[in-house]
Amino acid sequence: MKSIRILVASFVVMSLSLSLLAGCGPKSTKGTVDVLAPNQIPEYGKVIEFDWSKLAENQRPEFYKWSEKFMYNLLTLKVLEEKDVLEASREITRGEFIEWVVTAKLLEIVKKGHKFSDVPTSHPHHDAIITAAVNGYIEKTETFDPDAPLLRSDAAIWLVNASGEAAIAKAKSITEPLIPAQDGYYEVPENAIGAMTTCYLPDFQTMNYRWKITDGVKDDYRYIMPEDTMIAAEAAHSAFMLMYPPKRGGSITIGQAQEPKTLFSGLDQMSAMSQVTSLLYEGGSGGLDAQWAIFPVMMKRIPTQENGLWVINKDEKGEFKSMEVTFELRKGLKWSDGSDILAEDFVFAHYLYNHPAFPTIHSEVDFWIDKMEAVDSHTLKVYWNTPYLFVYGASPFPRKYFEEKNSYKLETFDLNDPNYYVAPKAENDPGFKSEKYLADEKFITDCANDDLYGVQPLHAGAYRVQKWEQGQTIILEANDHWIFGRPLIDTVTFRTIENTDTLLAAAMAGNVDMTLTGMTFDQAQVLIGRKDVTQLPIFTPSLTWEHIDLNVDDPTLSDVRVRRALLHAMDREAISESFFKGEQPVAHAWLPPKHPAYDDTSVTKYDFDPAKAKTLLDEAGWILNPKTNIREKDGKALQITYMTTAGNKAREQVQAVISSNWKDIGIDVITKNEAPTSFFTTTLRERKFSGPTGFMFAWVMGPNSNMYSMGNSKQIPTQQNGFSGQNYTAFKDETVDKLTEEILQSLSKQKNYENLKIIQQILTRELPSLPLYYRLDVTTVHKDLVNYQPSGTSAATTWNAPYWYWNK
Prior knowledge:
Distance between the termini: 37 Å
Largest sheet: 10 strands, mixed
Structural class: alpha+beta
Number of helices: 23
C-alpha cells in the first residue's frame, strides 16, 4: 500500500482534561516538570524506537501500541527521561513507580516523616518513597521492598490513593469486583478488589487492559492480570492519567448518513442502528474492543471449558452428546428505570428472540438449544443438543415490561417438540403450530410491533432515549443506573444527514462533533491538516468488504460466464487509485486479508480484461448489436439495474465508473439508487428487485464470520421465513451449504478456518457477488474528544462511548 497520513484512533488520547497553567512547574526529584494544559502539550521532538523485547512470551508489542502516546507526553512534560521508557517492556520497580507518581502529582518533596528499614537515605528513590508515605499514597510499614518488581494489584492501590478522596471513597464502597475483563472477578486479590475496580471506572481510567497469545494465536479475551508485574509503558500511562484525569459533563453531536428504522434491538442490522443501540443496550458480554477481544459485562466471566462453565458431555463412545453452559451474573444489575435485572430476564430474552415469530435473522442454531433456565436469581444454565463454538452470548430483555403490557406470560418451550411446533419442510408445507405456539406467536409479534419500545426502549445501556425527532435527531441522556456508573458525557445526539456532502459541511462548520456512517474516503481527506476546522479524520483498517451482490436466481445472471464478464470488465485498480489513493485495495475474496481464514493462494482473481469479458459474453450467447452497441440474446437486450445508497458520494462515484466499464462491453446499465433506510430495510431485506440487478453495499466480516447467513441457501430471505437471512443473492451450492453448516457445529476454530478457505474457493469461482475493495473505516472526531477507539470490526464505533470525555 502507498503511504498516507493515517491518524489512528489513539491519537486523540493525547488530549486530556485538566486546566493547568502553561509554563514551568515545580521541581521534583527528577528536576523541573513542565506544567501545560492538556491541549497544549506539543509533540515530542523525536521518534523513539521503543524496546519491547522483554515482553512475556504470551505478549506482543502491538498489544501496547496504545501506550506510546503517554510515554511521549511524559517526556515532553519532563516527568520522565528517555532512559526511563526506552525499554518500554521492562518491569518497573516499586520504588521507581512511586518516583513517577510523586513527580506526576507535583508533590513537594519531603525527606522525613517515616522510615522504612530497607530504604536507606542513599537509595535513589528514597525521597519519593518518603514523600508518598507522608501523603498517604503508600502505607507506613516497616519495610517497602523498593527494588522488587511492582505487581499490578499493588499499583492499583497506590493509584487510588494518589487519585484523591473521591477515588478512595469509591474503592472503599466496592465489595465485589466489577471489571470487564476475563480475569476481572475471581483472580483479583481481596485487598485490591475496590482499588482495581476503581482504576478501570470511567471517572479514573488509570489502568488499561492486557491481551495475550494462547497456542500461538491471540485468544478471544482481554485481561487485567492483577498478579503480573507492571511494565514501564503501563506505568507511564498511569502516571499521565494521574496528571490529567477524565472530566465529566458536556454533550456530543454525532452525524450519520443513515437513520435507524427502529431502536428495538434485533429487528434491523443497519450500522447506523448499531451505533445508537450499543449505547442503549447492555449484554452479558461486550466487544469487540480495539484488540478484537470480547469481555464479560453483566456476567462475572465468560464461560469456557477451562473455567468449567462450559461442559461438553460425551457418550460411551467418546462422541458428542450434549453441552451445558453456565452464566454467573453480577449482582446489582439494573434497568435504566432502576428496577432489578434478574436471571429470568435473560431467560425471557432467549425465548423471545429464538422464537420463529420474532422478525430477525434465524438459523438452525435456534433448534440447538433444548432449554435455558434460571438456576437462581443470578445464575443461568443453557442446555445444548448440538456442538457450537460461540456459546458465550446471553443478554436480558425486560420481561416484566412486556408481560404486564400484553397480559401474557411467556413460558419456556421446546422448538424440537413436535407437539409444540414443526417447521415447514417445503414452500407449500404449512408445518404445525400448536395452540401454545400460536398464543406465543401472537405475544411475540405484539412485542416486536411495540411502537413505543421501538422509539424509547427500556434496557440497561449507558444511555437512554430522551427524544427522537424522526428524520432529524435522536437525543440520548446518561443512565445513572448503568452497571459501571454514570457515563462521563451527559447527552449524545445523533443527527441524520443523508447527503454525505452535507455531512462533510456540517463537520467542517463544527455543527457535529463526530461523523460515523457516511463520510467517504475522499471527503475525509479534505480535513487532513486543516487548522481551521475542529475535526480530525480517522482512517481505521477494517474488516469491511465493499461489493456488488447479484441476484443469481435471475436467468441472465444465473450464467456464471456473465458474472465473470462483469468482474473482468471492472477497472478496480483504477477505482482504488483514483478515489482512495490505493489505500482501499482491490478485494479478491469475501474475507479480507486481516481475517484469520484468508488465503490468497486459494482464491480466483479476475484482472481488468475487457477483451476477456467480451469473449465470455459472446460464449454466453449475448451478441453485440452494432446499431445500438448493446448486446442481445433471443431478441432481448442485456440490461442490468445497478443500485446503491443515494447520497453516498464515494459509492456514486464508483458506480459511475463501473457503469461506464459495463457499457463499454455492451451492457445497458440503469442506475437506481435509494435512500439508505429503504435500501437496507426493504429492498435488500425483502429482495424487492426483478430482472438482472446488482446492488452495491458493504459487509463487515468480523473475526468470527462464518459465511452462513450470506452463503447458505437456507438464508435466502423469503416471505415464508419472515425475510430472515442475508443471502440476498439467492446463491445455492451444496458444498457451501454443507461447510457453512459444519462451521456452525464445529468446536474447532482451525477446522472452521479450513472450511472457510474452501468456501472462498467456491465463491470466487462462482461469483454470486463481485468483490470491489476492502475499506478503511472512515470517521471523523473532534480534536478535543478523548478515548475514541474504533476497532474496525463489526462492533459499533460507539462501543466504548461511556469512557469518552471532553478536553474543553
